[in-house]
Design goal:
The protein is mainly alpha-helical. About 70% of the residues lie in helices and about 0% in strands. Helix 2 packs antiparallel against helix 3 (about 60-70).
């Protein structure tokens, strides 16, 4: 139960950022903040961590592909939103992998 609580607390801190507008210094209309390239790179890095743990959610890679297409088409706000969602999914998948591994060790292997 302790690891589940840790997972839920982590989600509570990560999920509130989902609905916030992400800004980019690289396009008009954005006040400042991270560019699409920065967010995309962070999402790729988070995805690599999740892949190393063999726990990638089914929609994450598609979100990154869609983000790249949206950016190429000039739809910067959409591209940033998609890359941000992909990053969040990859981070949560990584947390899930850690939680499930620890749960397996404590509940199954210790018996």
């Amino acid at each position: 139960m302790n690891k589940l609580s840790t997972f839920l607390v982590a989600c509570a801190f990560l999920l509130p950022g989902c609905g916030q507008e992400t800004v980019s210094s690289g396009s008009p209309g954005h006040a400042g903040g991270s560019s699409f390239a920065d967010i995309y790179a962070a999402a790729e890095q988070a995805l690599a961590v999740a892949e190393a743990k063999r726990n990638v959610w089914s929609k994450t890679e598609g979100l990154l592909r869609d983000a790249k297409v949206a950016n190429a088409d000039g739809r910067i706000d959409e591209a940033i939103a998609l890359a941000t969602e992909a990053k969040l999914q990859a981070e949560l998948a990584s947390i899930q992998a850690d939680t499930e591994a620890e749960t397996w060790r404590t509940r199954v292997l210790s018996n």
